Structure prediction request, 344 residues.
Amino acid sequence: MKQAQWLLFAAALALVPSTAFAQKKKPTGGGAASGGAAAGGGEIDLDQPQGQQGQQGQQQPPPDQGQAGTGGTAGTGGTGAAGGGGEGGGICEIDPSACPKMENIAEMAKKKYKQEIYAVEQIYVLRYHRVELTPYWGFTLNDQFVSHPGPGLNANFYITNVFAIGLNGNFYDGLNSDSDFNFQTRRATRVAVPLNEYQWSAALNFTYVPVYGKFAGFGSFIFSYDLYATGGVGAISTRPIPVIDPDNRKFDFDPKVCFNLGIGLRIFVTRWLAITGEIRDYIYPEKLENLSIATGPIGQPNDPTSPSNPNTWLQDGVDITNNFQANVGLSIFLPFSFEYRLPK
Prediction:
């Protein structure tokens, strides 16, 4: 018996929360009362969707009512809709900046647009059967003791749009300079390294353009560019600088066979003018000054042991020398204008 009483008590406790927290349904009375409560900041029925809260007070008129009665009911429903907030506005009411205004449309209509747009543009510069003249200034990259700056010139004729044959020349005479560091080291330590200076160089070159394209810069400006490889064979005139025994030795310039390989970049400013930068390696056999001094009598050029004999001034054999040179200049294409073979 006691167990049955405890079971009934537990069942009663279980039913208490559902009874206490249940909400009563609000009466669906007149639209004015319901709409007025919503408009006045009263209670809002959360069980109804937002768009239907203001429609609770809107009742369907009986079929036998006239137009006047219907109009009155519509007025009441309108009050309820105003209280409930209605369906809400569009994107232009929520964010006016998202919708263009008439004055903005008029300003946009005044902008100028290119009518013709090509997915694949024609090559900006044609090189076929044109002459390229490139005056430049060059300077040495790999000689820390003597610098070999000087002006130079490239002259190329393009047999095709990507292949050219031409000449390359450099002038160094009077512009070679021994570094102060090298001079101070020789004087302080009585230790010297063989040095050489250049007079001129000339070569027959072949140029190939494997890559060309364009890139954007300075906002909306489009630059066209190309990358090229070049190489050739010619001659270079050099001589040793007397640093071991400058009192008795004096060298003359001697031309030698020289090969050159290089790569370059051209950035076109117009269809006939470009800014050019390149790096070349001039490879040639060099004769270096002898590090030892003959001990024979001075002033006897015919004596094989005399320091005055020119045969004792140079080392035996030759050394392969690399002169890495950076060139910066302007490329001018002649004639200035050209015609495309095919129209756009």
Q: What stands out?
A: The longest strand covers residues 195-217.
